[in-house]
Write a structure and sequence with these properties.
Number of strands: 7
Helix content: 25-40%
Largest sheet: 4 strands, antiparallel
Length: 152
């Protein structure tokens, strides 16, 4: 009976290791594509003002919230926005990407602030378009800001 269990365990480890290798290769390819063809963000000052970013204080600490867009299309729709949260010393603490349709009026496009979070609204999603980031950002937010495929 023990040899059957050992075979099963050995097979499960083999499958898990192959899955992990495949996942790492796939992530590596996607990472390389993201580096090769990055989004171009600009108009940071205007987008930061229009979307309600800037220097904000949470829990007695100051953070700089910077928003930059790709420009969208001719109808002012599908503007991809990069939201970045920096510490007072300039360290990147969190980053997210989302879409704004500047002509839509049925939901807010500006950031909203609570006592321990900020909320942004992603126009690309039908359900659950409100997203929150804890303020101050968590260690997981810091990690996600450095892994390009996790901050979309």
């Amino acid at each position: 009976m023990q040899t059957g269990e050992m075979k099963w365990t050995k097979m499960a480890r083999k499958v898990a290791s192959r899955f992990m290798i495949a996942a790492l290769v796939l992530y590596g390819l996607l990472f390389a594509l993201d580096r090769k063809f990055p989004d171009k963000f600009y108009e940071c000052e205007q987008d930061t003002n229009d979307l309600g970013g800037g220097v904000k204080t949470f829990d007695g600490r100051r953070f700089n919230i910077v928003l930059c867009g790709t420009g969208g299309d001719e109808n002012r729709m599908n503007d991809k926005i990069r939201l970045q949260i920096f510490s007072e010393s300039g360290e990147l603490l969190a980053q997210r990407k989302f879409y704004v349709d500047w002509m839509m009026t049925n939901w807010p496009s500006k950031l909203e602030y609570g006592p321990a979070y900020l909320a942004y609204y992603d126009a690309s999603q039908q359900d659950n378009y409100e997203h929150r980031i804890s303020m101050p950002p968590t260690w997981w937010d810091w990690v996600r800001a450095r892994l390009p495929l996790l901050n979309s």
